[in-house]
Prior knowledge:
By secondary structure, the chain is an alpha/beta fold.
Amino acid sequence: MSTTPILIAGFGFRREATLASLEQALEQLCHQYGDIDRLAVTHAMRPLVESLGRQHCLEVVVVADDDLASMATLTRSAYSQQAKGTGSVAEAVALLAAGSGAQLLGPRIISADRKATAAVAKARATGVI
Length: 129
């Protein structure tokens, strides 16, 4: 029996980010890690990521903004720490959405226009193939 891990891409971004910013970040993640199963975002940043999810037929998991500070991240952004209470919004969101036992596959990536960040967490496998 083998199980299939679920890969969840978490996003963080600046107000001026566009759908193209997120699209480019997702493309980088797919190139590096393979197919992504779900997208994740905080409640406050939800609309743009939901648009991305619709374009790619991917479920979007929404996590509470207040939970970000509870997550240990690989990246330590001073701005993110001050604004959101975490070293990386993208990494924290991915971990929260992936649930207990999740692990980051690497540090966040930054979109080419530097307006969006994204990270991938591997959730515990939920199915048997």
